[in-house]
Amino acid sequence: MDIREITNCCGPVLAAPLDGPAADELAAAFKVIADPVRLRLLSLIAQAVEICSCDLAVPIGKSQPTISHHLSVLTDAGLVHREKRGKWAWYSVAPDRLAVLRDALGGVPTAASR
Questions:
Q1: Residue 91 near residue 51 (C-beta atoms within 8 A)
Q2: Partners of residue 88 on adjacent β-strands
Q3: Regarding predicted confidence, which is higher, 61 or 16?
Q4: Which H/E stretch holds residue 82?
Q5: What's the rounded Cα separation, in Å, for the pair 112 and 86?
Q6: What domains does the chain contain, in order, with CATH numbers?
Q7: Sheet (strand 51-52) strand order
Q8: Average pLDDT over residues 31-42
Q9: Is 40 left (phi over 0), alpha (psi -120 to 50) or beta?
């Protein structure tokens, strides 16, 4: 998987056709959060505001190495911030990066609006 830090690449996907590079960047970002474990981790981190990696294995039901791998993917994509404190890593959401993904979907109509 091509993991890159997400930048402010484009406007809402329905506002105008995406060019190739913008579509590639958005697709790579959405692939990062398309994994159920990473999506659950992102949700837990957002709810906690800040959380130690040691507190994530039990609620997710995966081993610590698996959790570490998925946290690295989220960090490399710029979706979470990592701060080392002693031997533990603490994570928090990068709201500006999530806003890029949210804003890209901002023009998507809902069933009620059709």
A1: yes
A2: 85
A3: 61
A4: strand 80-85
A5: 50
A6: 20-105 (1.10.10.10)
A7: 51-52, 88-93, 80-85
A8: 95
A9: alpha
Query: For tokens 């031997």, what's the residue?
Result: 87
Q: Token pair for residue 69? A: 């791998």
3, 75, 84, 88 from 33: Cα distances, Å: 11, 12, 23, 23
Say whether pLDDT at 3 is over 60: no
pLDDT score for 5: 59
Give me the pLDDT at residue 26, please.
Answer: 83
Q: How much is the pLDDT for 113?
A: 47
* pTM of structure: 0.79
Contact 52, 90 (CB under 8 A): yes
Find out whether 113 and 76 touch, Cβ atoms under 8 Å: no
Neighbouring residues of 5: CB distance < 8 A, sequence distance ≥ 6: 76, 77, 78, 97
Looking at every residue in the chain, the average pLDDT score rounds to 84
